[in-house]
Structures are given as C-alpha cells and as structure tokens.
Amino acid sequence: MTGADEHTLEYGQRASVPSALARERHDHAASVLAATLEKRDATAFVHAGLERDPAIRYSCESLPDGRTAVAYDSTADEWLARSADVCDGHPAADLAATLTDRGCEGTILTPPHVPHDAALYLENAGFELASTDAIARARATKTAGERDRIAAAQRAASVGIRRAASVLADAAIVDGRLAVADGNGDTVPLTPARLRIAIDEAIVGAGAFPAGNTAVNPDTASSPDTDDAALRPDKPVVLAATPRGPTGYYGGLVRTLVVDSDGGRERRVHVAVTQSFRSARSLLTTGSASVRTVAADLEAEVRSFGFDDSDEIEATVSGIGLEPCEGPSDGSDEIEPGAVVRLDVAARVDETSRLRIADVLVVTDEGERPERLAAPAHSLSPAALLEQ
C-alpha cells in the first residue's frame, strides 16, 4: 500500500485507517494481485458489488450498506474504494475516473462475477476487461489474524456443542424418550428445537452469532421424528453449529452423540469416521493435496472398516472464513500451507439416522501435522465428551 507506515485506504472523499486484520489482508492480497497483474500485463484489479459480497468485505472494511467498488492499483501499490454514499453516480464509474486520472490504462482484471453495470462503466472509461480468480486464490490461504478470528468462532461452536452434550448427559428417560427439567422444576420433552436453543444461547454467551446455522439432526427429514418430538436415547443425535464471529469469520463444527448406545453398527461407524480424520491429517502432513484427494481419502478410510458401495458415505472438504464454505472447495483446488479447511464426514447408521463429524483444520508447512482448531473430543457419549 502507498504510505505503508500510515496504512491508509482511500475511500473517495475520506481516508480510513484499516484495522490490523485489514492491513494483513491487504498485504496478502496485494502480493497475489501484483504477481497476477504483472504476468497478465494489466494495470489494476477492480471489483464491485454490495458490501455483503465476501470479496468486497475482504478487500475493504467499514463501508456503509450499499454498492461499493474497490481497486488495487499495482503501479502505486495502493488500495482504493468507492461507496454510494460518497459518489454522485455509480461507485464503479467514480473509480474508473480516478484510475484514469492516475494514468492507468489498458487492461483491468476483475473477478468473473463482477456486475455487468460495473463492467460497462470500466469499459466506457476506455479499459479492457479480463477475468481473474486472484482474490479467490488469496482468500484460500489465511493470514494470522484471519486464523485467530476463525479459531474464536470455532471456540464458540465448541462451547455450543459442549452445552448440548451437558443437556443430553443430564437428560432423563421417560417412556422411551429424553426429558429434561424446565425452570419450574417440571419435566419436559427434550426436543431438537429445545436442544438447538441451548446451543444458540451458549454460542451467544461465547461472543458469537448462531447466524441461523445451528441444527439438530439436520439430515433426518424422512424420520418420523419432528422438531417438536422428543429425542430418543438410543438414536444418534447430530449437532451442527456454524457460528459467525463479530468480524464476520465463521467456525464449523459437527458432533454426533448417543445417550444410551448399545454399540453395534453405530459404534462401528463412529470408529470408522473418527479414524478417517486421523488419516486425512496424516495426508495433509506430507504436503499439499487437492480437495478431491482429501475427500477421497476420508471416504476410503471409512470404507476400509468393512463398508461397501451400498453403504451411504459422504465426505466434503472446503475452506472456511468469511463464508461457511469457500475456497479451496473445487475438487481440483490444492490445499496449500496456510489454508483453513473444514472436513465433514457422514455415514448412514440405519434408515433414519446418520453419524456425522466435522472439524476445522489449519494446514501448516510440509512435515507439520495440521492443527485442529478448538473442538470437543469425538466421543459418542455425551458424558465422555464432557470429560475430555
């Protein structure tokens, strides 16, 4: 950035001093963009959209709601931003004029999904446009500040899941269903809705937002049980939390618990799924691997415990950050050192139940085992999870 000591970001008629996190992101993105612009013989990078667009939020901060345009001028090594509140017309038109005044000409790189109207303003100013995935590539690896924010959201998710485990561990069995004491000393059915509220309250208490993403048994729509039907002690209870922290970064955690397990297939599935995470971490220790390779390793490890093609197994791998699911997420994407990825594995237990676990890992340098961000143990028993 120009005036690196000041770390100012030009917002039209005003200047802003970005936070330490924004400075990190600017520097990281600038290193990727500068190399891309030089290779493509382009003069600048421009993106436009609403402030909720993750690529916009990644590139600038503290903008009001509405249309925004952001640019990286490689010649000046400077970030520029325009928002509707300081522009007479479209922010992209204002930004195009500014770039022209700076002597920029020729090709401008934009994300493939840049809005059509913004592209027209840039072309009308005399620029040629070409698409790039440079910002997506930059976002696929995280700065130290980003990792800290994701870890904080993950800690909130862990608090929520542990709260659910505590409720399940203390639940009584009444007429073959789970029940808990309410605030008046009465016993009430423990429903998915009641358990979800407990998770959300714990997440809020931990300083994050549930963001409408908390779910209990999210994959059992065909089950005769409903959101208002009491949970059964002998059936797996899938708990999924994807909270958003105050700075917009997400965590992602899934655990499966059984109050009164009789072993059998659910134990076998649990051992297979938990072992798949160990295998994937070992794979990522040896160096970068593609999303497809890691997902295939997770599934293969589960199947190695005697499950065949008729057994339903699902393994997904993706990045996590300003979105619950972001790059690397395409099968061919490489998971490079610095990536933060969410591994999610599910396998069918019976006609109405699945066992599912998800964790978030920070991929470090080759030869170093990826770090599992704050999360409770993989235990199937609620009481055992709370003890570890």
From TrEMBL:
Region ranges (Disordered): 1-23, 368-388
Pfam families attached to this UniProt entry: Peptidase_M24 (PF00557)
Biased segments, Low complexity type: 373-388
Start and end residues of each Peptidase M24 domain: 214-365
Gene3D superfamilies named in the record: Creatinase/methionine aminopeptidase superfamily
Keyword entries, A-Z: Aminopeptidase, Hydrolase, Protease
Entry protein name: Xaa-Pro aminopeptidase
Gene Ontology MF terms in the entry: aminopeptidase activity
